[in-house]
Amino acid sequence: METPQRILIKNALILTMNARKDVFYGGSLLTEGGKIIRVEPGEIVPEDVRNLRVIDARGGIVMPGMINTHTHLGMSFFRSLADDRKDRLRKVLFPLEKAVVTDDLVYWASLHSLTEMIQGGVTTVFDMYYFEEAVARAADRAGLRAFLGETVVDSPSPDSPEPYGGIAYARKFIKAWKDHDLITPAVAPHAPYTVDGPHMIECRDLARSEGVPMTLHLNEMPFEMEQFQKEYGTSPVVRLDELGVLDEGVVAAHCIFTDQRDREILKERGVGVAHNMAANIKAAKGVAAVPEMLELGIPVGLGSDGPMSGNTQDLLSLMGTVSQVHKLVRLDPQAMPPSAVVEMATIGGARALHIDGITGSLEPGKRADIVIMDHSSPAMFPVYDPYSVLVYGASPRDVDTVMVEGRILMENRKIPHLDMSEIRSRGQEFYQKICALPALNELGLQAVRPQN
What is the pTM assigned to this prediction? Predict the structure, then answer.
């Protein structure tokens, strides 16, 4: 992967996503040393053209790299397996992971997911899975900005024979990767229903002492809400707040079932929320009250969830669904306008992860995390409203160029530093192993067997 270059992007329709939501038609952008130096509505003519790479956007949309605030990268080789099953988490996924998930599988599955994200214009991701050391190696190879949380659960897991072994794993993982330029290790207690109070506090203390983020699933499951109401007479959000777990270092995934009190606590504690619309409606769980969260000032970003839940790993495929479902729920065509959805995919996600000072918008001084969208496909023309085109018309096939800290990860739809055929070949090997698992029959699952 190449080192950061001096890059001039010209002839661009620039969505800055800055505080004024400036849109520059025929604009230009200059980067140097991995940072954005200038963003202007007209032509930039650098005084020094030495070692300058010029990219002609040809009128395409230039926007901040998108931020996927919640996923499980290592699940990509399970995609399309047991879709639409009831209680799939406990009856299918947990047993399947114990049967097949290894360090090697997680590495290649994560690399597979990360290539999909690059192709979809994602430049930052927050992952939560097992064997996060393998995920870190994959993210380092892929070149994305990555927040990586080691999962902690109350039972033996794929990378720990002991309950809550993820805490010890996280301690070592954090120390090994804490000083990486693009990778931020994190702690990831799975959920309030799989991590008890004392261990949730231990996870909080580890995150705070090491100065790293913490992420968890929160107010996601109907049985979770029933359990906490029965045991504590309140919601998981309130209970975790009583334990002192919630603060601005926490990113809470889903938050489907929240009331006004829950939302006020999230706001007061500075918790970021990852909104996973596709996974939530696919599982028929419900729709989070995101407009109410945004109105209250809670930082909300978009998440794909894992490839076994939301299936796709890009955000372009998700944005239209987010806008349209919120309109349907409220019977209001003006609810969740496209500009608000693009904001959640970019600077909103950065706020949720508390990195809006370095990425999420195209402004001088910020890191050069940039996406160039080709506008030649039928769905991308004409561009009367760039936000509407992105939300209602764009797809990953329209992403042409992706940069992270000034390094070009993809150009002309090609990712030169990754061997796509090798990744697919290794994926095929794991696919065959999974299909041959006795556990599939034991779980009542069927899969199309690959041909040799």
Answer: 0.94
